[in-house]
Amino acid sequence: MKLLTHNIMKSHCKGVVEGFPLKIVSTEVQVIEAEFNGEFITRMLDRLDWGTLVSAAKSLGYGENLPEICPDDSNDNESLLKEIHHVLLEVEVIEGYLECPETGHQFPITRGIPDMRLKEDDE
Q: What does pTM read for this prediction?
């Protein structure tokens, strides 16, 4: 699961009001190189929850060069765009789980795919 995917996911458990951000607990993380596309990263910046991205990246041991607040000039900063690209598209959680911030429900991540299905009791 890429951190780009994580940044848009939320829990739909019964009684959950916000369900975001999901906590990542990883047992296997890989870095899988992807071609840099600065234009794509620039377009994604307005759609990202920046604090969630930084927190998720750092919890996995990456993103140490990401600022806590996205700079206004980030579109013109190629080294920052490359760092964002790295954590969004190259850092991938292969095994682990996502945890709902409100209920503690765990959604497994297997072979890079998060399983967000709920059992009847959780719906």
A: 0.92
